[in-house]
Amino acid sequence: MEHDKKWAVKPFFGTIVTMPTTSDAPAQKLTAKGLATRERIITAAAELIYEHGAQNTNNEQIREAAGVSGSQLARHFPTKESLVRAVLAWRADGILARHQIPELGELDSFAALRRWADSYIASREALRGGCIFGSLAAEVVKAEPSHRGAVAEGFERWQELFRHGLSRMRERGELRPEADPVALTHLLTAAFQGGMLLDQAAGESTPLRDALYGALAYIESFAAER
After folding, report:
1. Per-residue pLDDT tens for 147-198?
2. Terminus-to-terminus CA distance in the chain, angstroms?
3. Alpha carbon of 80 to those of 26, 44, 147, 154: distances in Å?
4. How many angstroms separate the CA atoms of 149 and 25, rounded?
5. How far is the C-alpha of 59 from the C-alpha of 71, rounded, in Å?
6. Coil, strand or helix at 175
7. Cα–Cα distance measured from residue 30 to residue 77, given in angstroms and rounded to the nearest whole number
8. Which residue, 15, 66, 141, 142, has fewest beta-carbon neighbours within 10 Å?
């Protein structure tokens, strides 16, 4: 269609690039080199955004950190929004991978949930900048509501791990029938997000420990009698 051939000018991290006026440019199959370049851009952007925030990150910083040209950056991510969505998805992938390490199992037992909590309490992640996904999500949803869907999808993928594990515990009779996996999942993720933020503010891990242990104690109150 003629409309698809027209180009518009849109801002990208403080500069101007051209991009198709259609909602999404046609997907192109990337070579191994192209995929590596794309991954390098996302990784560099994720770290810069984590350090400085999305609003304070510009394409010059990203080009330098990723070692790419302006045309390469624009080719893979023609708008700021497309790169932020990619960073959100990449951060969500990281969160899922962090929750699926072999040591934690399927998060479908009281012991596994306790190991998950302890693994974060013992780490220094919260003290640096809070939850890497939650911090970005809070910023971009407020600044650009169009990212709400990407944020919701990331949280949904993450929470599904807890819902699945808690549902299995109830099916096996380890949790009483009245235990609601959805409500308990919300409790766990809210305790995690709030605890991470409070840790960041306090500079120590007591708030996260208290929040997670409190949430786990409530979940354990639904344990079936043996």
Report:
1. 888 899 999 999 999 999 999 999 999 999 999 999 999 999 999 999 998 9
2. 68
3. 17, 14, 11, 19
4. 19
5. 11
6. strand
7. 13
8. 142
Residue 195 carries which side chain, given as an amino acid letter? Answer: G
Residue with tokens 């990619």: 86
In this prediction the pTM is 0.76
Token pair 């306090």 is found at: 202
- DSSP letters, 51-105, are HH-GGG--HHHHHHHHT--HHHHHHH-SSHHHHHHHHHHHHHHHHHHHHT-GGGT
- Are 187 and 211 a contacting pair, CB within 8 Å? no
**Rg of the chain taking only CA atoms, in angstroms:** 21
- Tell me the two tokens of residue 200: 């960041």
DSSP one-letter code for 13: T
Tokens of 109: 């037992």
18 phi and psi angles, rounded to 5 deg: -100, 150
In single-letter form, the type of residue at position 146 comes to S
Phi-psi region at 225: left, alpha or beta (left = phi > 0; alpha = psi -120 to 50): beta
Q: How far apart are CA 42 and CA 46, in angstroms?
A: 6
Concatenated DSSP letters of 188-223: HHHHHHHHHHHHHHHTSSHHHHHHHHHHHHHHHTTB
Work out the burial of residue 82: count CB atoms within 10 Å of its CB; fewer than 13 is exposed, 13-18 middle, 19 or more buried.
middle
